[in-house]
């Protein structure tokens, strides 16, 4: 199992896509990154001024950026889903925010009790208890495999970020006879069901890059770091650890950890990939 090291131009271009700026001084942000790609102080001064990623809520003032302001933005296609018995489908929910949000899927009775338990779990996360919490985006898919009558009813995407909690809901309605006999036991190619497209975290912190997977047979998970020079074994870096659930843990985040981390879910039926862009920020606490 290997991580490919190095910083490619692709990394710098991806970074430019992370930042949404409306102040005149940052109009030429992308060009500055390309010409000063090795200047760490310049990177951090831009983020200190803008402090934004692509999904920053449009309701914030365009001329003032509050560095420690908490926020969250959640999107999902809500409404009624009409599904045939035996059909497979997926729901997708996305959340961006500071602290880094978490997404959970719930259904059934006692919704408020379930939400209270999730809020308690989220408060124990790495980011939420820091003086300088992470900013991140998370994407999650809920897989409905071989729809049956037990799948009917509401299903809720619950996004939690610090003091914020937001719920998006869909209603599943089942129609028609089973599409075809035996359709519920067929092999399924891998799908990555949760990952973070972007994560901005303070240097020295510990971060976890989630990579939840689904498939039949169960996929194997491994990680790569996109780069154009050399390779390094996962086991050779004591700060990086592959977790049992497929996530990647990075301790004592360093500037050299900047890059595109690619999770690969692989089985005999194929593979699925998801990329997380990690940006190590300088601490503002003296």
UniProtKB/TrEMBL annotation:
A family per Pfam: I-set
Gene3D superfamilies: Immunoglobulins (2.60.40.10)
Matches recorded under PROSITE patterns: IG_LIKE
Keywords annotated in UniProt: Disulfide bond, Immunoglobulin domain, Repeat, Signal
Sequence intervals crossing the membrane: none
Gene Ontology cellular component terms for the protein in this record: neuron projection
Superkingdom of this protein's organism: Eukaryota
Signal peptide extent: 1-24
Domain Ig-like residues, every copy: 57-159, 190-276
Protein name listed in UniProt: Ig-like domain-containing protein
């Amino acid at each position: 199992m290997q991580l490919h090291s190095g910083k490619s131009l692709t990394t710098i271009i991806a970074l430019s896509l992370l930042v949404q700026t409306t102040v005149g001084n940052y109009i030429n942000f992308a060009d500055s990154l390309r010409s000063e790609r090795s200047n760490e102080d310049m990177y951090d001064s831009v983020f200190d001024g803008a402090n934004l990623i692509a999904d920053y809520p449009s309701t914030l003032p365009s001329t003032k950026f509050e560095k420690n302001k908490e926020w969250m933005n959640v999107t999902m296609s809500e409404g009624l889903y009409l599904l045939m018995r035996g059909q497979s489908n997926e729901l997708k929910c996305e959340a961006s925010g500071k602290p880094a949000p978490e997404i959970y899927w719930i259904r059934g009775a006692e919704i408020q009790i379930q939400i209270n338990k999730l809020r308690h779990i989220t408060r124990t996360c790495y980011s939420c208890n820091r003086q300088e919490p992470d900013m991140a985006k998370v994407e999650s898919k809920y897989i409905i495999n071989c729809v049956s009558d037990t799948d009917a009813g509401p299903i809720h995407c619950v996004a939690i970020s610090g003091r914020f909690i937001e719920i998006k809901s869909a209603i599943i309605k089942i129609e028609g006879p089973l599409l075809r006999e035996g359709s519920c036991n067929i092999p399924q190619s891998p799908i990555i069901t949760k990952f973070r497209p972007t994560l901005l975290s303070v240097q020295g912190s510990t971060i976890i890059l989630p990579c939840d997977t689904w498939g039949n047979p169960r996929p194997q998970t491994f990680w790569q770091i996109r780069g154009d020079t050399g390779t390094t074994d996962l086991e050779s870096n004591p700060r990086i650890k592959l977790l049992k659930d497929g996530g990647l843990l990075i301790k004592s985040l360093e500037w050299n950890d900047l890059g595109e981390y690619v999770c690969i879910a692989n089985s005999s039926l194929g593979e699925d990939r998801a990329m997380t862009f990690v940006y190590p920020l300088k601490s503002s606490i003296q």
